[in-house]
Design brief:
mainly alpha; Growth Hormone, Chain: A; 18 helices; MFS_trans_sf; MFS transporter
Length: 428
C-alpha cells in the first residue's frame, strides 16, 4: 500500500472510529440511564444504585492491566471485535432472561460486571491502537475526535434515555444498546489496526505475568512516563474534591434545585465538546507537558474560585450561572491537561508496550476514584467546604510545580528548550 492509499485509509479510520465510538457509547449511556432509574424505582435504595456504580468501575480497574497485555500480544482487531461481541451477547442474554423470567437487580449486576470487563478490553485496546490507525500528523485530531464522541454521547445519552423512560419498557433500552453495538462492530470490522504499525512481529509471546512485569520495568526506565503516571494518580485523588463536593455544595449547602443542577453538570460536557473542537482544529501542541502543567495550574485556581458563592451573598440566578461557568471552565482545563498528554504518550511509548502502560495508567487512575470519594465524603462531613476546596487547590498547585518542574519539562521536550536557548543566544 503506497502513502496516498494509507492516507486515504487513515482518513476513513478518522471518521469510522469516531462514529463507532459515539454510537456504542450513546447506546451505553442510554442503557445506564435507564438501569439507574429502574433500580431506584424498584428498590428505592441508594445502596443498590451505588452497587451498580461499583460494578461498572471495579472490574475495569482490576482487568485493565490484563487488557493491556492482550492488546500488546494479540491481534488488536480481533480483541476489539471479540470484546464487542461479548457485550452484545451479554445484553442479549439479559434480554432473553428478562423475557423468560423477568428483570432482576442481581441479573443487572451480573450483566454490568460482564459488560464492564468487555469494555475494559475494547477500550484499552482501542486507545492503544489510535497511533496505528492514523498518520502521526493527525494524531491530535484523532484523539480530539475520540473525546468529541465521548462528550456527545455523555450529553445525548441521558436526554434520549429520559425521553424513552416514560414511554418504553427496559427491553427497549436493552435493544437500543444491542443495536448500537452491532453497528459499532460492523464499522470496526472494516478497519486496519496495523496501518501505521512500526512493530516487528515477534514469534514467541511473553507469558501473562512476565508480560505485565516487563510493562512495569518499562515504566520504571521511562522517567517522564513514570512522572506522568504519578501526576495522574494524585490528580485523580484530589479532583474528587469537586466530584464529591460539587453535588454536596450546590445541592445541600446552597439549595440549588436538581433541575438547575442538571444544567450545571451539562455545562461540563459542553465544555469538553468545545475543547475537543479546539484541539481538532488547531496545530499540535509543541510542548505537551508544559501545556498540561499550565492547564493544571489554571484548573487548581478555578477550584479555589468555586468557594465564592459560599463566602458571598449572591442571588440564586447569579449563583447558578456562576457554577455553570465554573463547570464549563473545569472541563476546558481538564481537556487541556489530558489531551496533550495522551497525544504525547501515544508517540512516546513504544508500540510493544503501549497497551500495558495505558492499561496500568487506567487502573491507577480508576483505583483513586473510589478512594477519593470515600476520603472527601468523610472530609465534607467533618470540615467546612471552603477550607477543603482552598486546601485542595493549594495541594494541586504544589503537585504541578514540584512534579512538573522545569528540569522534568526539559527532559520531556529538549528540542523546545534547546531551540529557546539557541534563540536567546542569537538575540544576545
Amino acid at each position: 500500500m503506497n502513502e496516498e492509499q494509507k492516507y486515504k485509509k487513515a482518513s476513513y479510520h478518522l471518521w469510522t472510529f469516531t462514529a463507532s465510538k459515539m454510537i456504542s457509547l450513546l447506546g451505553s449511556h442510554v442503557l445506564s440511564f435507564g438501569i439507574g432509574l429502574y433500580i431506584l424505582a424498584l428498590t428505592g435504595s441508594a445502596m443498590s444504585f451505588a452497587t451498580t456504580m461499583i460494578c461498572s468501575i471495579l472490574p475495569r480497574a482490576l482487568v485493565a492491566p490484563l487488557a493491556g497485555y492482550v492488546a500488546d500480544n494479540y491481534s488488536k482487531k480481533r480483541t476489539i471485535l471479540v470484546a464487542q461481541a461479548g457485550t452484545i451477547l451479554t445484553v442479549g442474554g439479559l434480554l432473553l432472561y428478562t423475557e423468560m423470567v423477568g428483570l432482576s437487580v442481581y441479573a443487572i449486576y451480573m450483566a454490568t460486571v460482564f459488560n464492564t470487563i468487555c469494555s475494559a478490553f475494547s477500550g484499552v485496546t482501542f486507545t492503544s491502537s489510535i497511533a496505528t490507525l492514523v498518520d502521526p500528523e493527525r494524531l491530535q485530531k484523532a484523539m480530539s475526535f475520540n473525546q468529541m464522541s465521548v462528550s456527545i454521547a455523555a450529553i445525548g445519552g441521558p436526554v434520549i434515555g429520559g425521553m424513552m423512560y416514560g414511554f418504553f419498557s427496559m427491553e427497549a433500552f436493552l435493544l437500543v444498546h444491542m443495536s448500537a453495538y452491532v453497528i459499532a462492530f460492523c464499522l470496526e470490522a472494516t478497519m486496519n489496526f496495523t496501518l501505521y504499525s512500526t512493530r516487528n512481529q515477534v514469534a514467541e509471546k511473553e507469558k501473562v505475568w512476565a508480560g505485565l512485569a516487563s510493562g512495569f520495568r518499562y515504566i520504571k526506565q521511562q522517567k517522564v512516563v513514570k512522572t506522568i503516571m504519578w501526576v495522574s494518580l494524585w490528580i485523580n485523588l484530589f479532583f474528587s474534591a469537586i466530584v464529591v463536593g460539587g453535588t454536596y455544595i450546590i445541592i445541600e449547602l446552597l439549595k440549588v434545585k436538581s433541575t438547575h443542577f442538571g444544567f450545571i453538570e451539562a455545562s461540563g460536557a459542553v465544555g469538553m465538546l468545545v475543547a475537543s473542537l479546539i484541539f481538532a482544529t488547531r496545530a499540535e501542541v509543541k510542548a505537551p507537558l508544559r501545556f498540561s502543567k499550565i492547564s493544571l495550574l489554571l484548573l487548581a485556581s478555578s477550584l479555589g474560585l468555586a468557594v465564592v458563592p459560599l463566602v458571598t451573598n449572591l442571588s440564586y440566578l447569579t449563583m447558578v450561572i456562576f457554577y455553570i461557568v465554573i463547570y464549563f471552565i473545569f472541563a476546558i482545563f481538564e481537556m487541556g491537561i489530558n489531551m496533550p498528554i495522551m497525544v504525547y504518550l501515544q508517540k512516546l511509548i513504544s508500540e510493544e508496550y503501549r497497551g500495558r502502560v495505558l492499561g496500568l495508567m487506567e487502573t491507577m487512575a480508576m483505583s483513586m476514584m473510589p478512594i477519593g470519594m470515600i476520603v472527601y465524603g468523610i472530609l465534607y462531613d467533618t470540615f467546612p467546604a471552603t477550607v477543603i476546596l482552598l486546601v485542595t487547590s493549594a495541594i494541586i498547585v504544589t503537585i504541578s510545580l514540584v512534579m512538573l518542574r522545569t528540569s522534568v519539562l526539559k527532559e520531556a521536550h529538549p528540542e523546545v528548550y534547546n531551540q529557546k536557548i539557541a534563540t536567546e543566544s542569537v538575540a544576545n
